[in-house]
Structure formats: structure tokens, C-alpha cells
Amino acid sequence: MIRKHSATLHGHRTSFSLEDAFWTELKAIANARGTSLAALISEIDDGREAGSNLSSALRLYVLRWLKDRN
């Protein structure tokens, strides 16, 4: 199921939609890296290409993380 989530990035509220599986993996990645979920989302947001969608950037990050771990 796709759910809406909200986060504060650099003092601004934003929202994004993610499937439950991606949300679960993002939380696991943050835990594995010893960082907060908010810090991880902020890092991904800072690194995404201009004009790209935050939801897509989060999904691609999870995909890359999982591929690199195998």
C-alpha cells in the first residue's frame, strides 16, 4: 500500500508517498547506518538531481542500497 509521509527538511515541511516496503527498508537502512530516518531522508534529498521527485529519489536510494549489499 502507498502511504503519504511528512518530513521537515532544512526547516521546511514536505510530503512524499512511498509503498510500505520502501518505508520499512528506509527505516532499516537508517538503523544500519546508525543515523536517524530524518537525517537519511535529508541526505537523500540533498543528493537528488534538480527537478527529480523526492519519492522517486527515496525509492532509487533503497534499490541501490539493496543491490550494493548483495
From TrEMBL:
Statement: the UniProt record of this protein carries the keyword Transferase: yes
Keywords: Transferase
Start and end residues of each Ribbon-helix-helix domain: 3-66
Any Pfam family: RHH_4
Gene Ontology MF term list: transferase activity
Coiled-coil features, chain-numbered ranges: none
Keyword Transferase: yes
Gene3D superfamilies associated with the record: protein bp1543
Superkingdom of source: Bacteria
Protein's UniProt name: Aryl-sulfate sulfotransferase
